[in-house]
Amino acid sequence: MDIPQISFPNTDKEFINNPYPYLKELREKSPLHLDVESGLVLITHFDDVKNVQKSKNFSSSEPENYEKKEATIVDKKDYEFFWKTEEFNLLNLEGTIHSELRGLVAKAFSNRQVQELRPFMERKSKELLEKVNRDSFDLLADYAQPYSISVIGELLGVPEEDYDKFLYWSHAIVKMYDLKVSDESALEAENAAKEFYIYMNNLIDSKNADPQNDMISRLSQVSENDQKLTRDQIICTVILLLNAGHEATVNTIGNSIVALNQNDIETKDLHKKFEIKDIIEELIRWDSPLQFFQRWVVEDTELSGYELPRNSKVAILLGSANRDNLAFSEAEKVDFERENLSHTSFGGGVHFCLGAHLARLELEVSFQNLFNYDIQLLANPERTGAFGIRGFKNILVKI
Ligand code: HEM
Q1: Tens-place pLDDT, residues 49-97
Q2: Which CATH number fits domain 5-398: 3.40.720.10, 3.40.50.1820, 3.40.1160.10, 1.10.630.10?
Q3: DSSP secondary structure letters along 283-343
Q4: 370 Cβ closer than 6 Å to some ligand 1 atom
Q5: pTM of the model
Q6: Ligand 1, atom 39: closest residue by C-alpha
Q7: Is the CB of 359 under 6 A from ligand 1?
């Protein structure tokens, strides 16, 4: 059976504004679709996404001798510094190297260490909200971004005066993760990766000379069976923690507040009406900040009745899976009392989000403070234009 072919409208403005009606149509027509431009097989149903995440027939690592068929997909290895910051990115690794590296990173990133950041988060969140102009401010630039970057900065042990540089590098580098990447964005990502790489090397040197209670110091020290992380592995991990952690958390705060407004749900005292944990999970499900991840097929596989040959590539559409009516009753509705809260926004299987405990705590502290206010949108916020990393350019609000 041939997989139905489509031209995925991932740069179409209307689609970016609200991809869910189109994704619903896709799910209803067929669980799998082939995007003719990128050559990716798009996986739209919740159960299939879960199966791909758990199956060994799908890999996040590029297979040896893989021949790139589509000119629209950037070969990340062509960009030297981008690749230096990517080579040991957990997201791209599989098998023993992935489990060993992940084990070491997890040791330096325990729940206890994350919980220790709570007082810092509370202080920072309150401080930022006290500083805003309550009649009009940008929820992202004035609150979510400085909040999230300072939490990651505090976790890692990065000097505060360098946060702006970190933010710029992160924004430039993550553009490489979209479905189709322009040459201009790829070059900007390469330059940012170079600066970041050099900066990190110096920072690790100074941490080694004078270790602190922070993640960069811990990553340099942590060991298991006499194994330690190499310099490049630490650099790739720090960059991953920043990129994976920062944007997704900022966009979850933004997407969530807009979602509440769009669904006519009052923000004031919301945390007193429902469990804060249920609010967080439901809002992350409803508008996932990360819409897709790619996997290579490493063994001929059948999925929902279709053959997927070895060396083909798939994209698991997390946002679509989260709106699948076969998995969630009335999936289009925001419902803080739904029984099934097991969405795919934090991924699944061996690549399940390593920072989910930090993200959940950041969101809990943040929402608890934000929900002390009635937050009103002052204008219709504009989406960034990217499909993969789903967020807004800015969100003008009053509280
Ligand atoms: C709301 C916020 C967040 C969301 C929605 C999110 C989502 C995800 C998803 C979907 C994956 C799996 C990717 C895949 O399947 O290939 C992932 C992996 C990962 N996330 Fe998060 N994330 C968030 C916050 C964070 C934070 C705050 C950190 C750390 C500072 C973090 C660190 C990581 C890391 C290190 C991985 C790679 C794990 C691996 O490949 O073994 N994330 N995240």
Answers
A1: 999 999 999 999 988 766 665 544 566 677 899 999 999 999 999 999 9
A2: 1.10.630.10
A3: HHHHT-SB-EEEEEE-S-EEETTEEE-TT-EEEEEHHHHHT-TTTSTTTTS--TT-S----
A4: no
A5: 0.94
A6: 351
A7: yes
